[in-house]
Design goal:
By secondary structure, this protein is α/β, with parallel strands linked by helices. It contains 18 helices and 27 strands. The protein folds into 4 domains: 2-76 and 83-100, GIY-YIG endonuclease; 132-311, P-loop containing nucleotide triphosphate hydrolases (Rossmann fold, 3-Layer(aba) Sandwich); 322-366 and 426-563, Rossmann fold (3-Layer(aba) Sandwich), CATH 3.40.50; 571-663, Alpha-Beta Plaits (2-Layer Sandwich), CATH 3.30.70.600.
């Protein structure tokens, strides 16, 4: 007879604890998925064993018993420990962490193997000759592997320096040691490109893929292959950090600066922190790769918390592209009201005439940014979210990019019935249309979230561009991440100001990263490329640093500003959102929250707010925001205070307000 402590698969804060059951199955172990009778009705519920005991410290009245054990699903001890850590770190529920580690879908009833790689053929790619910089970087990584100690390495290499080959050979070394590896990319659309390179090197049999675009059946079967130890390498987006591998030697985050590595859904985890936690238990390495590291991780590497490895030359020794900044205010004064500057049009003509390809980058999808009446000033907003809707010409509809609501584009003003209703601002859809008009003989494609909705569409668009079938590729940030096409001669950044003017303390950092990464797509072959940055803020330090490909100058200025106003990396920033269907209740409860935070944490706590959240009304729910700055070294204390306030003031069943917590968020929407 055994006794087990289990976490019930129930999405409620009121059942977020360990429940003790008797168990007549002697083979039961921690990590097993079981079925148990739960609550008054004893309805069977799925649960996960967190501890197994031979006896109880004291008798349990009305003890219930485990009904059955799932023979297929069992989590390793390291995963359970990470779940406990996630509960403390991200103030989430036990089951939130467990769900990250468990497979979606279920076993095929027909016994059919659902392999996402089975229908494709991959060319073999032997390892190339390394450059001296690549060789040096690898030797530094190998030295740390031999030490068999947990370390985090930041591989800072300029665009085109050959970081991917370093990843490949680092993983090869891990496999030689009998260990496994996880390779993460920031966007699902990039996984086909990464898969081709890794499967071409290591083969299908040793490689698994995990990401949300797979079918539920594929995800389940890939999870089982990984859990059974049939593969050595897992490739995927951020959720693949939870792959149930054993004996992990390295986890790699390519383009580590990307915001997509921070989950925006519960649990709101940071992929790097989860990777570091897992590798701490495996005594292995976490490798972060980027040409434009996040300010926080650059500071950590320069403070000795991470190891820093630099690669400052391009793989083929081609110089970094020539960058021109165009002041769009001057274009207007010269009578050019087009979205394209005269210099950009000239350079596009030159590149097309010599057979080279072009990338045009605008970080805004749709056709027009918003629809407004020129008579009364009315703006078409989402009735659920209260934010302006984007006009999509292909659908002749206004779309909310937050909740996805879609409605027909108005022909007259909904407020005053005036026909003087217009569309303002430009998105990638409008850029594509304008390019087709200007260069009618060129083949043009667009890559954004609207064109990659169907399975395989992103891979098709990228492959046609890589093969040279597409001459001009228009896109959002999807094309700024890891795209490696040797024939690209020009990168045009249509408007640097979109990202630069976001209401976020990281806006300058994001703008610099996107400009630098987009610029880095040009000139990756044997010929030098060129870049045109269009902006209304040509003297901004982020624009100037991006134009000169000068990360250190940007880092110096940005870090000084962060220190002055005490933002990360000089604090941990908590976003606390109080929500309620009643506006008055949300306002009242947020004031009480601020008062309680100040009472518990004293004058050390910088509490900002309460104030209406940027997305104030979402699906009929009002949202008030409070920002809390925790000084370095005080995160555990501040998290405990927030957790206790939430438990005491927000978990009563009669309470009409909810408290949502995000620590170091990458979006304040």
């Amino acid at each position: 007879m055994k006794y087990v402590d289990v976490v019930i698969d129930n999405n409620s804060d009121h059942t977020d604890e360990l429940y003790t059951y008797g168990c007549t199955f002697d083979e039961v172990k921690a990590g097993d998925k079981v079925s148990v009778p739960f609550a008054r009705g004893n309805k069977p519920r799925e649960a996960y064993v967190f501890a197994v005991k031979d006896q109880l410290a004291r008798p349990v009245r009305g003890l219930k018993y485990v009904m059955e054990i799932d023979p297929e699903i069992s989590l390793p001890a390291e995963a359970l420990d990470t779940c406990r850590w996630m509960k403390r770190r991200y103030l989430c529920k036990y089951i939130d962490g467990v769900k990250c580690f468990t497979p979606a879908g279920s076993r095929s009833k027909r016994g059919k193997k659902r392999d996402p790689l089975s229908e494709k053929e991959y060319e073999s790619h032997p390892a190339p000759v390394l450059t001296p910089e690549q060789e040096k970087a690898l030797q530094q990584i190998f030295v740390r592997m031999e030490q068999k100690k947990h370390r985090i390495l930041l591989l800072q290499g300029v665009t085109g320096s050959g970081k991917t080959e370093v990843y490949l050979q680092a993983i090869q070394q891990v496999i030689r040691q009998g260990k496994t590896a996880i390779m993460l990319v920031p966007e699902i659309s990039l996984t086909p490109q990464t898969i081709r390179r890794f499967v071409g090197r290591f083969g299908k049999e040793r490689t698994a893929v995990l990401h949300s675009r797979l079918s539920l059946g594929q995800r389940y079967d890939e999870w089982m292959r990984i859990r059974k130890g049939e593969v050595s390498i897992v490739i995927g987006a951020r959720s693949a950090v939870f792959a149930p591998l054993s004996n992990i030697g390295v986890i790699i985050l390519d383009e580590e600066h990307e915001t997509s590595y921070k989950s925006d859904k519960t649990p709101k985890y940071d992929t790097l922190e989860v990777a570091a936690k897992r590798m701490g238990q495996h005594q292995g390495l976490v490798i972060l790769g980027s040409a434009t590291p996040s300010v926080v991780n650059a500071w950590r590497s320069r403070s000795g918390l991470f190891d820093l490895i630099r690669m400052e030359r391009r793989y083929n020794e081609t110089p970094l592209p020539q960058v021109d900044i165009v002041d769009m205010r001057e274009e207007l004064r010269a009578g050019n009201h087009s979205m394209f500057s005269r210099l950009l049009v000239q350079k596009m003509q030159e590149q097309l005439s010599c057979g080279r390809q072009i990338i045009l980058f605008l970080n805004r999808r749709g056709y027009s940014s918003f629809v407004s009446c020129r008579s009364c000033g009315h703006v078409v907003v989402c009735p659920d979210c209260g934010i302006s809707m984007t006009y999509h010409k292909a659908e002749n509809a206004c779309v909310c990019h937050f909740c996805g609501r879609k409605q027909p584009a108005p022909q007259v003003c909904p407020a005053c019935s005036s026909a003087n209703i217009r569309r303002f601002g430009a998105g990638t859809e409008q850029v594509e249309e304008a390019v087709r008009e200007l260069f009618s003989q060129a083949s043009v494609a667009r890559l954004d979230m609207d064109t990659v909705r169907t399975k395989g569409s992103a891979d098709k668009i990228l492959r046609e561009f890589q093969k040279g079938k597409t001459q001009i590729l228009v896109g959002t940030q999807l094309i700024a991440k890891g795209l490696d096409v040797a024939n690209v001669g020009l990168s045009g950044i249509i408007s640097a100001d979109i990202t630069l003017n976001l209401p976020d303390f990281r806006s300058a950092e994001r703008a610099f990263q996107l400009m630098t990464q987009a610029a880095g797509r040009a000139g990756r072959g044997s010929e030098t490329g060129s870049v045109v940055i269009q902006t209304y803020s040509p003297d901004h330090y982020a624009v100037q640093a991006a134009a000169h490909q000068d990360y250190e100058e940007f880092y110096r200025q940005e870090l000084a500003l962060r220190q002055q106003i005490s933002y990360p990396p000089f604090c941990d920033l908590y976003q606390l959102v109080v929500s309620s269907e009643r506006e008055e209740a949300a306002e009242r409860k947020s004031v009480q929250l601020v008062e309680e935070l100040r009472r518990r944490l004293g004058p050390r706590a910088a509490v900002l707010g309460p104030s209406p959240a940027p997305m104030y009304l979402v699906n009929g729910v009002y949202r008030m925001q409070v920002l809390l700055k925790a000084p370095l070294g005080k995160r555990q204390e501040f998290s405990a205070a927030v957790s206790e306030i939430r438990r005491r003031q927000f978990l009563d069943k009669k309470e009409e307000c909810l408290l949502h917590t995000d620590i170091n968020p990458f979006s304040f929407i």
